[in-house]
Request: fold
Amino acid sequence: MATWQPDPSFYPSPRMAAKAPAESLAYVASFDPDRQKPDAIAVIDVDAKSPTYSQIVGRVDMPNAGDELHHFGWNACSSCLCPNAPHPHMERRYLVVPGLRSSRLHIIDTKPDPKNPKIVKVIEPEEIAEKAGYTRLHTIHCGPEGIYVNALGNAEGKAPGGIFLLDPESFDVMGQWEMDRGPQQLAYDFWWHLGHDTMVTSEWGTPDTFENGLVPEILLNSKYGRRLHFWDLHKRKHLQEIDFGEEHQLVFELRPAHDPTKAYGFVGCVISLKDLSASIWTWYRDGDKWAAKKVIEIPAEPADPDVLPPVLQGFKAVAPLVTDIDLSMDDRFLYISCWGTGDMIQYDVSDPFNPKETGRVRIGGIVSRASHPGAKNGALNGGPQMVEISRDGKRVYFTNSLYGSIDPQFYPDGIDGWMVKLDVGENGGIAFDEKFFVDWPKGHRPHQVRLQGGDCSSDSYCYP
Amino acid sequence: MSPWLVLAGLGAFHGLNPAMGWLFAVALGMHRKSRRVVWLSLVPIALGHAASIAAVVFAVVAIGTVVDQRLLEVMAGALLLSWAAYHALYGHRHRVRVGMQTGLAGLSLWSFLMATSHGAGLMLVPVIIPLCLASTPARELTAEGSLPVALAAIGVHMVAMLGVTATIATIVFEWLDLGFLRRGWINFDTLWTGALAITGLILII
Reply:
């Protein structure tokens, strides 16, 4: 697997990665919410010059049904060029694809034919539970000590959730990452500041509190996650937690600045118990501690209870439900998915404490059901959810499903999957690419998007 | 070839490898926006490397004074071959203990661990054995007697390594964009594994 020169998709700095050529393929997790047919990784042609542009051109089915493919990542990325632990002659070649529900881990080779990836290894949940003590596998990041996988539950499906390591060449499960987890119990997402030797983790809940849908009593009692945790990345030790307070529930996607010298990042909080608003927080270095501050509040929109799902009827409003965010490679634009209202909002976050809205589109949404020029049906359901940005920041892709058992709580009529693309203006501003609307095959729903060669949430960098 | 020249040449080879320190020095300089940091980092990098080399040299001298030289060569050769095999198979799998926030002590620890795990000192053994373990009619072979020449060997290697590390770090920090790494960072790990294996064979044959 070793090569003579570094993988051409590895870049020392985000500055250089932003000049990468445009991607020609996207890999998208596709799952069956009824857990009858196997889930798949779909391959989408995103080369605008290709005759099969915006079509699904390949697919690899999982060997079992019911995995619930969700997030996934690469075996190796730009962090292989880091000076303290260099492994520059790895290949970015394998997709590491976990089942969130099954806890099964699939290693998929994209090399011989990128449009027809093949499964080369399957690690069964029993092996992961035995060697690492975790289940319900979620986020994947390639990093200094190999492949990091986080999990929402322990071997018994309870707290604590945490992180384990996978060998990036043999894909052997190497064991639990944490050496001292301090007070951390809940898990959701994780990423790091390589320049500050710091890992950050966020919180959702234990599997029994979400696998059959969100539990209103738990939510209203503020028992879902509401904290950020900061860790020493190399000592693997918990350093600090920041509690967003009782009002805030579900602290999800973490987007640290790509520039390794910057010590700040953004995290989305799905819902406020006070007014159903969603919020974006900036975490930052404050002296010798980490701190966090709410920088964006997205309000709920009043709505006629008759058109609302039962969970929202009593509130007479649609919650924005910010369930994913993504930061451009130059750390300038933050994209915010409002899965409830159907908005995708672009903010200029050049000043991370003073974001300015620079663009907004609406598609789907619980009440609005906004359409797209490429859609045959005039009323789309689901809303902007997993969002991914091209390395050059000019294209943004997103899909519309959140999680199999939560989708029907907010979209009781069901979700018909779609994937769309935005074109980004030179100084901000976003607009739909009218030619890009992927009407997802019935029976499956799309989730995370990964772009060939890397994207804005796949790679981390050691050089400014 | 003069053993001193070989020691210096291996020092230059070690210094050339981005994984042995020049790249870390450049990165720290970039993070802290300081030329001084680049230069200051070179000191612990060179000392950590030299400490790792010294451990091997002193072990060779200590063992060499009690066992037959041929046996020592075979032992060292076997160790080098297994190190090469380990490096090829598991070189990528290790704890990362030192990151970008490191101080100078952490940097020397990093350099020591990096040189040791790469078998940098072992690569010097074929030169160290004849140089430090040659008894002459004028003096009997003792560990104390070999000390000056052993220290000189470590010093020559370290100066060559430091010279190359400092030169590359300066050129890259001052004039080059790190973009050249994308194509120019050739696979030193493979070269290194090859060098370890060849050194092992030289000792055994």
Q: What stands out?
A: The interface with chain A takes residues 18-19, 23-24, 26-27, 30-31, 92-102, 110, 178-179, 181-187, 189-190 of chain B (CB under 8 Å).
